[in-house]
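Sequence, structure tokens passed on for absentees:
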Amino acid sequence: MCLSYIDYMAKEKSVFLCNECGYESPKWSGKCPSCGAWNSFVERVVRNTPSARPVVQSERMLSQPMLIDDVRTDSLPRIDMRDAELNRVLGGGLVPGSLVLLGGEPGIGKSTLVLQTILGIPDRKVLYVSGEESVQQIKLRADRITHERGNCHIVCETSLETVFTHIKNVNPELLVVDSIQTMCSEAVESSPGSMSQVRECTAMLLKFAKENNVPVILIGHITKDGAIAGPKILEHIVDVVIQFEGDQHYLYRVLRSIKNRFGSTAELGIYEMRREGLRQVSNPSELLLSDRHSGMSGIAIASAIEGVSPFLIEAQALVSTAAYGTPQRSATGFDGKRMNMLLAVLEKRVGFKLAQKDVYLNIAGGLRVNDPAIDLSVISAILSSNMDVEIEPTICMAGEVGLSGEIRPVNRIEQRIAEAAKLGFKQIIVPRSNMKGLDISRFGIEVLPVNKVEEAFRLVFG
């Protein structure tokens, strides 16, 4: 009995893993020595006996070292997803053998986006694994969003070992797992959704994708802070991380690339949520701009660029006297710290006293924009509301505001001007530094160059 107990103890031990970076330690520690995160260690039981892992049949032989010049990249063409917005965010299509993680808030439309996409590619055999919904629920959604059926096989399963059995029987060309937090493996003794289960299941799916050259799309939950649920190492394992964003009170959804080993991370895709599914928005400017009502103050139009697409957005501001003593600062769709910096520039460099005023800023349409070129429109909207003076609805702006009040140059100014001209604007204010070598005669819009914010205000407010 004593020897059996000793043998049992030798087969099992406890280690502590960091949720953020995956660092392993034999004892608990308050701070991770690898990534510096606090209170991130969780205990995990490790068995010395080999665990029963799912056997995935591999089609390739043992890898051999190759010269980098001998590696060919034209043998694996990207898969066309029949969705221009999704293709652009992925970098031109889905790469065979890649592992893609799609995250988003509950009810934002992740499953709808993936389902209508795979139903639109009938030339690919797809296996859709759902751990959250029944096959009847998936069929009802498919009937609602599209009349196409494609070559899609669906199964409701949470055991990863059983999923690999279905994969062997179906032999799909594309695998979708909805969601990774519902999957569990017998190799890990913990509940589904735990840190160790998510990490282990993702690693097994990555091994399957790379060895069989089959792309895998994982749908993942996010935390209340907006980060992908599960250990941070999950984002390091996958090849592509894209996030589906938007406000459920608005019709618009934004597909944003956070990590992409095969393309740019600056791409952006915009969709409109409808009863029959998601519609691609090819011209977001017309949707993000509200009707141009005359006589309204606190509204300025900016020419912004996210990824490769230029579009016009509407910055709305409201400035009022602080009712409760302490001024309130609130920004929706814009960085609040940057708004405070712009308010400091207005007070120091221009002389407008806003210290005792409440300032509220909103980017219309529920879109969050990180382009610094909208700085000029933000401060113009704030001053317009403060003075209660309307900005001409035919004028557009593009320029970054520096700490000394100068208007700094922005990138791709020609595309910004062309977008404003296409939508019927008559004037656009741009940084003077962008005027070098710029032929403004071909745009059909009056270009007004400025150096300082004072010059821009004189042009806007007279």
